[in-house]
Amino acid sequence: MASDQSGPYQVAVGQVQRVGGMLGLDQGMIDLLSRPKRELTVNFPVTMDDGTIKVFTGFRVQHNFARGPCKGGIRYHPALTLDEVRALAMWMTWKCATVGLPYGGAKGGVICDPKRMSPGELERMTRRYASEIMPIIGPHVDIPAPDMYTNAQVMAWIMDTYSMNVGYSVPGIVTGKPIPLGGSKGREEATSRGLMYCVREAMAVEGLKRAGATAVVQGFGNVGWNAARLLKDELGLTITALSDSSGAILDKAGLDPVSVYEHKQRTGSVLGYPGATEISNEDLLEMECTVLVPAAMENAITSANADRVKARIVAEGANGPTTPEADLVLDEKGIMLIPDVLCNAGGVTVSYFEWVQDLQFHFWSNAQIRDRLNEIMTYAFARVYATAGAKEVDMRTAAYLLAVGEVVQATKLRGIYP
Ligand code: NAD
């Protein structure tokens, strides 16, 4: 079994092998699911502001096409590796299948340090990367989206580059675009809204009352801040602790996420928020609470701290915040973990809505987005929960059994070509 120290791709393959074994898949099918269908590595030059040429390396990995076009983000990071991109592409396949979106998984990125690049350098690098991966992307082939250190502006450049090359506007080539270019309403908060719907359903099946219930959120970026806001405003939970990379704050009487957000905008950190006590990020994860939301980075809950987690529900806002070893510990403690492939799938679901709207050139209201997201997340949660009960497994294993099972079914129905 993969351990806390395993690389992401090793973890991802280990998961497929375990679930493949439980589903009784033959080795050929497990091999097929363990490897990406297509991988492209591109090395390309960019003219920097000082006139020098710098060569960047980028990737696009498409894991599986069985259920539809590929979908997945683009990450800009100095430590990006092909193995990491492979794992992220595979997880996207399972995430899309878990919530029933007609997509396979993909991921891409460029090895670069966007914090040290000017807007002009970022734009030239993005446009050249988009041109380099153009042979394998397309609105019916593979639809990129933002991921770490890429945003709506980067998507706008990709959309324009692709459109310039084909000679007409193709909004459906990427999602997470600005609204004037065919972006969707509700995309900004989509991941957190989906998470909130999952927490609502989990509390209901666990028989937990909302009155007096508390939530603790690690990470105060897009996912963490919107999750804290929605858990408070829509479910009435008391937010007792919040954190970002600089540290954590605690107020048992309840923190107001909007006011903490304004404080962070002013000062750059959640620390120093009036009336709150400062605690460490480690202590935050071990606090007594109804719901713990890890919404920062991978490997937050490991075999080193899992036995001290006291939440009743862990709602994975981040991708991969719990290691496989920690999963076992949480399960033994009777803590319900809502796995990332389900819990943070609201983001890709509204991306799917954006793509559908772009293909139809017909746009939906906020209320329509919320209703459809609620419907998809509620149904997906119920399906995973029912499978966990029927197969007597934890929620992550249940989600994987369903997701892998559906990709296998699609593969078998299509047959092995030729
Ligand atoms: P973000 O960059 O907006 O925010 C990340 C936050 O985590 C920041 O507040 C940062 O200060 C904090 N952080 C970093 N290291 C920390 C640490 N050691 N302890 C506590 N806080 C720390 O990123 P995001 O978009 O909110 O994404 C967060 C996670 O959610 C990532 O794992 C991402 O892959 C996942 N995710 C995001 C989306 C989305 O729609 N944005 C969708 C699905 C999954």
How would you describe what is shown here?
It is a single chain. The chain has helices at residues 8-22, 27-34, 82-98, 119-133, 152-166, 190-205, 222-235, 257-267, 281-285, 324-332, 340-343, 346-360, 366-391, 395-414, and strands spanning 38-47, 53-62, 70-77, 104-111, 142-146, 214-218, 238-244, 247-250, 277-279, 291-294, 313-315, 336-338. It is of the alpha/beta class. Among the domains are: 36-170, Leucine Dehydrogenase, chain A, domain 1 (Rossmann fold); 190-343, Rossmann fold, CATH 3.40.50. The strands form 2 sheets. A 7-stranded mixed β-sheet has the order 9-8-7-6-10-11-12, sandwiched between helices. The protein has a 5-stranded mixed β-sheet with strand order 1-2-4-3-5. The longest helix is centred in the C-terminal third of the chain and has 26 residues, at 366-391. The model has no long low-confidence stretch (mean pLDDT 96). Bound molecules: nicotinamide-adenine-dinucleotide (NAD). The site of nicotinamide-adenine-dinucleotide has 20 residues, from helix 7 and strand 7.
Give structural attributes.
418 residues; alpha/beta; Rossmann fold; 7-stranded mixed sheet; 45% helix; 17% strand; binds nicotinamide-adenine-dinucleotide
Write the layout of secondary structure elements.
Blueprint: H1 8-22, H2 27-34, E1 38-47, E2 53-62, E3 70-77, H3 82-98, E4 104-111, H4 119-133, E5 142-146, H5 152-166, H6 190-205, E6 214-218, H7 222-235, E7 238-244, E8 247-250, H8 257-267, E9 277-279, H9 281-285, E10 291-294, E11 313-315, H10 324-332, E12 336-338, H11 340-343, H12 346-360, H13 366-391, H14 395-414
Parallel strand pairs: 3-4, 3-5, 6-7, 6-10, 10-11, 11-12
Antiparallel strand pairs: 1-2, 2-4, 7-8, 8-9
Helix pairs in contact: 1-2, 1-3, 1-14, 3-14, 4-5, 6-7, 6-12, 6-13, 12-13, 13-14
Bound molecules: nicotinamide-adenine-dinucleotide.
The site of nicotinamide-adenine-dinucleotide has 20 residues, from helix 7 and strand 7.
